[in-house]
Design goal:
The complex is a heterodimer. Chain A contains ten helices and no strands. Chain A is mostly helical. Chain B has a domain of about 220 residues: P-loop containing nucleotide triphosphate hydrolases (Rossmann fold, 3-Layer(aba) Sandwich). The chains are: A mainly alpha, B alpha/beta. The interface between A and B is medium-sized, with 26 and 27 residues.
Chain lengths: ~180, ~300
């Protein structure tokens, strides 16, 4: 297939053709989640179209993602760094307890820089740094920290529950000692 | 001789259907941003019913408002008020004395022509709430059409209605120009025969069967909107902008760009002294970053980039 033929699939994922594989993945997961959900925003627009239209949209999204994945994995390998992530996933070390250091080490083994995490997790770089270095005093309130750690773990494809529980335990212990 | 017009202004209009979503707030901020970028900016409050732009620029009571154009037939140029910001002039709206539905077709066309004749880099038109066809016609005049909503079902419902109405009105204009008046309406009424289920199907049908030289298709795809989400209460709601955009694309077939968002500011509401309404671009605030991102995305027709706010 030529570049032009892929344009349609980028359009289905609502992207421009010059995008990175990471963005394709991000767009795919958002759209899949949206059209599988019962989000209230469907109510005003869905009308009588109902499930049928959504099923069609979901099928298109799946097809587009499958074709674009092949495209990136075969032709554009050198252009995207994130492919490394999926390839080297098997060699990711496992930690007994996930703290800031464990997150940093995992990230480094995966060859992901913090800017990339910030971009896709939508967490500010400053907070990510403070999460890794465990500067709890410089982090926002607890509820936010939990969300941030969760998103960070999700991006690294780690066990979200384990990472969040481990990290928040440490966070709470440290805070207890301080006050 | 008439004043020679030296610039072709880019016109931005903001609509969105519902009052209280922050149309006037956003446009006063965007106008200020553009003016501080040394662009000549004119902000027009064409919210005929509930004009309130003057609060954002601390103009006590302007001697001249848009009413002078419609009632006294004064040229728009004469109605410009200076603001405390260099390069930014405004035309204040009017309250109560003119009703939008009472504006005659010829008056409206004159208004649209005169807006285009104003000398500026950017002309920002703040429309009132509502789905009135006069509002929509002014909206359709713009080079950049912007809609704003808040993450609430009623407001989002209004947004879809507004966009849908604007899209249909535009479609009908285009078809009328090609001597296909009422074609869209007729096809829609017989949609079962044609196997048409929604607006996307209707548009595809028109493009495939009524468009002989490709000019209608081209014009249809020029209709695109910028979406701004206001009053977000938590970071998760940022994603709703992407969802609204997706629905506009997939259910209405309208090319849409999620230009940015503004988080809710409780302090802003608590204080509510008049000075809080004035755009403050001299200090570095969260809102300044959000406005900058929205403005640049609209200028460049770019979608929101999360990386821009990673250091927020």
């Amino acid at each position: 297939m030529h570049e032009q033929d892929y344009k349609k699939y980028f359009e289905i994922l609502e992207l421009k053709p010059d995008t990175t594989f990471s963005e394709v993945k991000e767009a795919y997961s958002h759209l899949k989640k949206l059209y599988s959900s019962n989000s209230f925003i469907f109510a005003p627009i869905e009308g009588t179209l109902g499930k049928e239209k959504r099923k069609k949209i979901l099928e298109q999204i799946e097809t587009a993602y499958a074709i674009l994945s092949d495209y990136y994995l075969s032709e554009k390998k050198e252009k995207t760094q994130t492919i490394k992530t999926t390839v080297s996933n098997e060699h990711v070390p496992e930690f007994d307890i996930y703290d800031g250091n464990a997150l940093r080490l995992t990230r480094e083994v995966l060859g992901i820089n913090l800017e990339e995490v910030a971009f896709f997790s939508k967490i500010s770089l400053k907070y990510l740094k403070n999460i890794e270095t465990e500067r709890f005093d410089l982090l926002p309130p607890k509820a936010y920290v939990r969300i941030f750690v969760r998103k960070y773990a999700e991006y690294l494809s780690l066990d979200i529950k384990k990472v969040t529980d481990d990290y928040m335990k440490k966070y709470e212990n440290k805070n207890k000692n301080e006050f | 001789m008439k004043q020679v017009k030296t610039k072709v202004a880019e016109i931005w209009a903001i609509g969105g259907g519902k009052g209280g979503t922050g149309k006037t707030f956003l446009f006063s901020q965007l106008a200020t941003y553009l003016a501080l970028k040394k662009k000549q900016v004119i902000l027009i409050d064409s919210d005929f019913g509930g004009a309130n732009l003057r609060y954002f620029f601390n103009i006590k009571k302007s001697e001249k408002s848009i009413k002078n154009f419609f009632v006294n037939k004064e040229p728009l140029e004469n109605l410009l008020s200076h603001t405390n910001i260099k390069n930014l002039k405004i035309i204040t709206g009017d309250r109560n004395s003119i009703s939008i539905s009472s504006i005659k077709y010829s008056q409206k066309m004159k208004f649209l022509r005169h807006i285009k004749m104003l000398n500026a880099d950017y002309i920002l038109i703040d429309l009132g709430g509502g789905l009135n066809f006069n509002t929509i016609d002014i909206f359709l005049l713009a080079d950049k059409m912007i809609v704003i909503t808040v993450p609430e079902i009623t407001a989002i419902d209004n947004l879809f209605q507004f966009v849908k109405n604007a899209y249909f009105r535009n479609l009908n204009f285009l078809l009328k120009k090609h001597k296909l008046k009422d074609a869209a309406k007729n096809i829609w009424e017989d949609r079962k025969i044609y196997g048409i289920k929604d607006i996307v199907d209707l548009t595809d049908y028109i493009k495939g069967n009524l468009d002989f030289d490709g000019s209608i298709s081209k014009k249809i795809s020029e209709f695109s909107i910028f979406i701004v989400l206001n009053k977000l209460r938590n970071p998760n709601e940022i994603n709703q902008g992407f969802s609204i955009k997706s629905l506009c694309i997939k259910y209405l077939g309208i090319p849409s760009i999620y230009a940015g968002y503004i988080a809710s500011d409780d302090n802003f509401r608590k204080n509510l002294s008049i000075s809080d309404y004035l755009p403050k671009f001299n200090i570095s605030t969260r809102i300044q970053k959000e406005i900058t991102e929205i403005a640049e995305n609209i200028i460049n027709k770019e979608q929101i980039k999360i990386s821009n706010i990673k250091n927020a």
